[in-house]
Model the fold of this input.
Amino acid sequence: MLADGRRASSTTAGGVIVHELTADDVVAEREIRRYPPLDYLDVVIAWDQVGAWRVTCKCGWTGGEQPAVTETKYGTRNCPEDFEDRVFAPEWSAHVAPFAALTDLEQLVDQLRDVETRIADTVLLARRRRVLGTSRPRGRTVQARRPTAMEPPRTRHQRHR
Ligand SMILES: [Zn+2]
Done:
């Protein structure tokens, strides 16, 4: 979060990067990186303009906020890693948990499709080898033709009746 309310989502050597240009940026002679022919630009905002760090999502959700503090060693105002791990990471995990569940569901559906394909292939193979009969209008889609102890084997004549 910048002093002027803008949000930056990436950092560079001299500070953070935003993709919208304001009159203040021009007045302050901030570094502007243009990427022709795309209508796209980076403005480098100095570290002293970084007010706070906040975890956000593209959907609009925002989590906790941490005031930005200047690191004496480098003069930057990066979000401390331990804060990211301790505060932001659990909030983020909780936010994306429902989506993670959806991913699990998608994987299960994929597995089910694989099993269905394998069953269909195996049924086809079994029919070719005449282990299974073909489906009939009045009953089950698959009719077992394997003889069992309970039921004597049927003859070819009976099968086609
Ligand atoms: Zn979200």
